[in-house]
Write a structure and sequence with these properties.
This protein has ten helices and no strands. The chain is mainly alpha-helical.
């Protein structure tokens, strides 16, 4: 029975921490790190400041947790690129789809990460270097393997990834501007579907192997 009680306590703690971070990500996205207060997050989560600080003793600890969750999700999607044995076109198509889905379903999380990076990553640069850089290098090795096997055209894989990140994440980070241009309150699923088609077509065009001219002198 004691084990059951401990497990229940852990489940309750996990649930409460998830509720806290869900509120925190919105406040950090709207106010930035400096403009966010623990008291505001606690009030939004229906807790006292003291109660929240039992789970997250400092604002930086809460901010770190929010960014950790964003990065965990992002890296999980990046790992799919390391599937060297699969068709590169299908791998990249799925990657673009996953990135756009994240932008549509988690816009606040994307904006928090973007704000941290735009400011020079003062509080999270170490995590980016430790966790993102090795995975990017691994993905680049896969691109180089695809190129050597003639599966894709020679392409600067690093900058292709940068371009994919920029194109997909902008649908979260700059969605307000896009909605204004489109004369509506917010982006729709159709907007994301249309974006997916354009982005996938551009990416596949970048890696397309030029067709060799057929032999023969012709008539």
């Amino acid at each position: 029975m004691p084990t059951v009680k401990i497990n229940r306590r852990l489940l309750n703690r996990d649930k409460l921490e998830a509720e806290i971070t869900a509120e925190a990500v919105r406040v950090f996205a709207e106010c930035g790190y400096e403009g966010t207060s623990i008291a505001t997050v606690a009030d939004n989560a229906g807790l006292s400041k003291q109660n929240l600080m039992y789970y997250f003793p400092t604002k930086q600890a809460l901010y770190q947790r929010v960014l950790d969750e964003v990065l965990d999700d992002w890296l999980a999607r990046m790992e799919s690129l390391a599937a060297a044995g699969q068709d590169p076109r299908e791998v990249l198509r799925a990657y673009v789809q996953a990135k756009l889905k994240f932008s549509r379903e988690n816009p606040w999380a994307s904006r928090v990460y973007a704000m941290e990076v735009i400011s020079g990553a003062p509080l999270y640069g170490g995590q980016i270097q430790t966790r993102v850089v090795p995975l990017v290098r691994k993905d680049i090795e896969v691109f180089e393997q695809w190129i050597s096997e003639g599966k894709i055209a020679p392409v600067n894989a690093t900058h292709l990834l940068f371009a994919i990140w920029a194109m997909t994440q902008s649908y979260a980070d700059f969605s307000a501007q896009m909605a204004l241009v489109l004369n509506r309150k917010q982006l729709t699923k159709k907007d994301f579907d249309d974006a997916e088609k354009v982005i996938v077509d551009m990416v596949l065009a970048a890696i397309s192997v030029p067709q060799q001219p057929s032999g023969g002198d012709g008539p």
